[in-house]
Backbone:
């Protein structure tokens, strides 16, 4: 019997010739990525283009798992954005709404946004029952650990953590109730509380948070990690050593180059990269994932390490290891980036509004969500326009 030479096109899409960075699988090099249906079929050297129905030449580009933005705003606040339109063009295929909904409003968030989005949308549920709606986050009466935990346990598929933020009162009640809800729901807590004299950062991080809980806006001027001599305060290292995590949460008022540069040089890196995406942060600072990653690159962090903290590490933090990686049979959520070269200016915020010059910018070229090309800036997955058939004479 003579074996037949097979030319069957077994892959739906092949990304060919890119630098694949997949930290979860210790992959960093020139590889091709083949996709079948919604899943990754193979990451390997030199996969034949004859085996794929569609081939995208991504030579010179960087291929990563779809980004995971662990701090974004899609619901419950003025300026919250629609996930798909704002995230998919940036290579972000998973977004976590940070506290827009509480136990009273989660179902509405689920019905109007989560189930209506192509990307994976998860929630950090606010300790405040009505989330960020109304007079936000001051009503102690509406901060119920038991009801919040009950909601988490009802919807563990979508609620991945608890958020405590913006409380102006003197005490720790919101944080302690949030920690209790997170404990009873088996999830982590993200906190955004600027220090006041009755609630210092040191006490918060060393006495109230648990290992795995996360301080967001870590390089904000309002939560200064560094002293007047630009030295990272020792208790931040103490907190890190006991397992407290630090999240970027860029936003429109929470990223200072002066603090971030000093902290990164002194070894206090962000555990997760995130945008705090909402309309003001997009308008003011282009606070997208690629731009935030660009800033960390400009501050001297290694690209592969930045990718890890934007994909695999947040996947683990939210308890979804099926995301944030390009392993065989993983969901085909993929981003393709250009590392553009030129004279660029990156901007920060807070009480300072400054510019930081750089010669590289991370730009999303393609996004693939569940095997489907949903963003293709330069048409790399398309045939040439010359393949357009002639007009139909019957339609004259
Ligand atoms: Zn936020």
Residues:
């Amino acid at each position: 019997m003579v074996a037949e030479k097979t030319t069957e096109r077994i892959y739906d899409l092949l990304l060919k010739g890119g630098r694949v960075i997949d930290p979860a699988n210790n992959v960093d090099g020139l590889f091709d990525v083949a996709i079948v249906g919604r899943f990754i079929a193979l990451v390997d050297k030199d996969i034949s283009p004859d085996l794929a129905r569609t081939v995208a030449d991504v030579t010179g580009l960087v291929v990563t798992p779809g980004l995971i933005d662990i701090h974004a705003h899609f619901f419950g606040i003025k300026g919250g954005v629609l996930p798909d339109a704002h995230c998919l063009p940036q290579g972000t295929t998973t977004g976590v709404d940070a506290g827009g909904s509480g136990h009273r409003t989660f179902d509405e968030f689920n019905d109007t946004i989560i189930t209506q989005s192509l990307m994976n949308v998860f929630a950090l549920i606010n300790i405040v029952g009505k989330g960020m709606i109304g007079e936000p986050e001051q009503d102690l009466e509406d901060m119920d650990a038991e009801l919040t935990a009950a909601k988490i346990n009802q919807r563990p598929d979508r609620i991945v953590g608890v958020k405590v933020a913006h409380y102006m009162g003197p005490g720790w009640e919101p944080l302690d109730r949030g920690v209790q809800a997170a404990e009873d729901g088996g999830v982590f807590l993200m906190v955004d509380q600027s220090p006041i004299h009755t609630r210092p950062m040191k006490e918060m991080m060393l006495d109230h948070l648990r290992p795995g809980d996360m301080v967001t806006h870590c390089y904000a001027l309002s939560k200064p990690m560094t002293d007047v001599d630009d030295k990272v305060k020792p208790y931040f290292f103490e907190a890190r050593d006991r397992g407290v995590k630090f999240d970027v949460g860029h936003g429109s008022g929470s990223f200072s180059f002066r603090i971030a540069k000093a902290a990164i040089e002194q070894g206090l890196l962000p555990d997760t990269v995130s945008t705090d995406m909402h309309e003001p942060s997009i308008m003011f600072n282009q606070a997208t994932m690629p731009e935030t990653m660009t800033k960390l690159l400009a501050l001297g962090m290694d690209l592969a390490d930045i990718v890890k903290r934007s994909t695999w590490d947040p996947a683990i933090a939210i308890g979804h290891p099926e995301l944030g990686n390009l392993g065989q049979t993983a969901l085909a959520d993929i981003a393709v980036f250009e590392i553009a070269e030129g004279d660029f200016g990156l901007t920060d915020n807070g009480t300072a509004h400054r510019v930081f010059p750089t010669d590289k910018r991370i730009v999303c070229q393609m996004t693939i969500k569940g095997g489907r090309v949903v963003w293709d800036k330069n048409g790399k997955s398309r045939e040439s326009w010359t393949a357009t058939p002639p007009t139909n004479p019957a339609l004259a």
